[in-house]
């Protein structure tokens, strides 16, 4: 019985008329998945508030790769070699630098998988970095920053500035961690179903790649770029799609003709960077995205417990309100007002909207529930934060992750095998995401 979770919420009965509010046709399985993946664009936005400084970094000497690293070294199995279509000497590779928060890294991975398929190259998948990570920067600066960052023996303790002089600020050890993408998504299924060759890497460092693949500097083609949106890849050679914010067009044939063993991109971020204009490629992207479902321990099970407590999938409204950082903090009032307008604009009758805007709210969370709002947010104590005042005043039937603390206990014991870091604080945003996405409707923070 979790009724004590809601003791702090002032309550009155909501009319059964709310059950009619915002009713939509039942989503098909594919549409539900699209919501889950699209929500990422709203929930975990690019974090450009951790900029790379303009100061030139101290150039560090590459450290040789050793088998002592507890992050598993990849092996070339049947999913990473040419499978009889070529010999090992003919196999070519592609990789990239990760940056910004989860959503950006997910988009980079999606684009990289498409490029691996288009070019018939093996994708070297760099680690997923959670927590403190830099924004985009030109290749050399981003590479140097991440090379320092991914060494736990070089990171700083909180309050220490000993390692920030003359180089980029090194974050505290407990502010970041990294995961193998195979722990997060079922990439093995994508490999087998689409015959896309992939291998996980403990590092994106050139020295590790050269040693592992037995290649030299001349075997590497860099696409460094001096801007975030430098290259746009066209899958249809007849396409007339405009470049838009991108600077340069690259056709698949251009990339396939490159003789180098390895293509090393800076950023692959961008929803329109790798086009899928051909029907077969559109279908490929959809199949790939269907596999982008969290498999990391306890994330889905915890989210599903909260969803069940809210009445089940599609029985509530999911919203995301981000106001804690950067331009979102500066535009907090406009963001909140926009969310409020959208909540009131679901073709509901004025009576239903009035009921949703009741001054208090009560829910028994039994088999039949009135509609409620689940809010994913980047603020811990949203009810005590002034930016959210208007929302709670007008729509008090709002629940957040903090209302379900007893259901989060399974996350407290999850430890990252790579650095023994407790994963609790890193996993909460994903649970928040999944719960909000499983509502019958979703409203996100505008870009």
TrEMBL record:
Q: Keywords of this protein's UniProt record, alphabetized?
A: Carbohydrate metabolism, Fucose metabolism, Membrane, Transferase, Transmembrane, Transmembrane helix
**Single GO biological process annotation from the record:** fucose metabolic process
What transmembrane ranges does the database entry give? 21-44
* Cross-referenced InterPro entries: GDP-Fuc_O-FucTrfase (IPR019378)
Can the keyword Acyltransferase be found in this entry's annotation? no
Q: Name one GO molecular function term.
A: transferase activity
Q: What is this protein called?
A: 6096_t:CDS:1
The record lists the organism as Paraglomus brasilianum
């Amino acid at each position: 019985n979790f009724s004590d979770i809601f003791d702090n919420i002032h309550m009155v009965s909501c009319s059964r008329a709310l059950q009619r509010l915002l009713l939509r046709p039942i989503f098909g399985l594919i549409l539900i998945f699209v919501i889950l993946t699209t929500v990422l664009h709203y929930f975990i936005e690019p974090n450009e508030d951790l900029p790379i400084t303009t100061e030139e970094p101290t150039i560090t000497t590459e450290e040789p790769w050793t088998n002592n690293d507890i992050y598993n070294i990849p092996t070339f199995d049947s999913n990473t070699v040419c499978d009889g279509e070529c010999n090992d000497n003919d196999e070519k590779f592609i990789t990239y630098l990760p940056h910004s928060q989860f959503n950006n890294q997910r988009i980079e991975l999606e684009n990289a998988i498409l490029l691996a398929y288009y070019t018939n190259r093996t994708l070297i998948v760099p680690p997923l970095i959670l927590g403190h990570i830099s924004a985009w920067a030109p290749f050399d600066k981003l590479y140097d920053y991440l090379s320092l960052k991914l060494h736990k023996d070089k990171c700083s303790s909180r309050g220490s500035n000993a390692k920030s002089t003359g180089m980029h600020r090194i974050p505290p050890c407990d502010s970041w961690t990294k995961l193998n993408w195979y722990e997060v998504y079922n990439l093995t299924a994508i490999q087998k179903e689409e015959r896309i060759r992939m291998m996980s890497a403990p590092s994106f460092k050139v020295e590790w790649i050269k040693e592992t693949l037995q290649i030299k500097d001349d075997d590497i083609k860099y696409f460094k770029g001096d801007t975030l949106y430098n290259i746009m890849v066209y899958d249809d050679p007849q396409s007339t799609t405009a470049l838009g914010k991108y600077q340069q067009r690259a056709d698949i044939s251009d990339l396939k003709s490159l003789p180098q063993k390895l293509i090393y991109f800076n950023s692959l971020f961008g929803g329109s960077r790798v086009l899928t204009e051909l029907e077969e490629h559109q279908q490929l992207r959809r199949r790939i995205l269907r596999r982008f479902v969290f498999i990391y321990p306890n994330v889905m099970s915890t989210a599903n417990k909260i969803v069940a407590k809210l009445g089940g999938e599609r029985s509530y409204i999911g919203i995301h309100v981000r106001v804690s950082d950067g331009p979102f903090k500066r535009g907090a009032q406009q963001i909140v007002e926009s969310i409020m307008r959208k909540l009131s604009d679901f073709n509901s009758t004025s009576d239903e909207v009035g009921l949703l805007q009741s001054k208090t709210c009560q829910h028994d969370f039994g088999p039949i529930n009135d509609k409620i709002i689940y809010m994913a947010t980047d603020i811990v104590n949203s009810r005590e934060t002034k930016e959210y005042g208007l929302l709670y005043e007008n729509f008090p039937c709002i629940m957040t992750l903090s209302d379900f603390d007893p259901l989060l206990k399974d996350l407290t014991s999850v430890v990252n095998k790579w650095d023994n870091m407790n994963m609790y604080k890193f996993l909460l945003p994903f649970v928040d995401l999944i719960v909000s996405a499983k509502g019958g409707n979703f409203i996100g923070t505008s870009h």
